[in-house]
Amino acid sequence: MILSKGFWQTYKEVPTDATIASHQLMMRAGLIHKSAAGLYNYLPMGYRSIRKVEQIVREEMDKAGCYEMLMSVVTPGELWQETGRWEKMGGEMLKFKDKADRDLCISPTNEEAITDVFRKTIKSYKDLPLSLYQINTKFRDEIRPRFGLMRGREFIMKDAYTFHATKECLDEVYDRMYEAYENVFNRLGLEFSAVVADGGAMADGDAKTHEFQVIADSGEDAIIYSNEANYAANIETAKTIRKVESAAKTGSMAEVSTPGKATIKEVCEFLKKNEFHSLKSLVYKARNDEEEKFILVLLLGDDELNELKLEKVYPGYEVTTATDTELKALGLIKGFIGPVEISNLDIVFDTQVDLNAAYVVGANKLDMHLENFVPKEVIKQIKTADLRLACSGDYTVDGKHQVELKRGIEVGHIFQLGDKYTKGMDATILDQNGKAMAPLMGCYGIGVTRLVAAAIEQNHDENGIIWPAAIAPYNVSFVAIVKSEEYKEKANELYKTLINSGLEVVYDDRKAGPGFKFKDADLLGLPLQVVLGERDHKEDGMLEIRIRRSGEKIKVSHEDLISKVNELLKEL
Ligand code: ATP
Ligand code: MG
Question: Which residue has a Cα nearest atom 28 of ligand 1?
Answer without folding.
Answer: 151
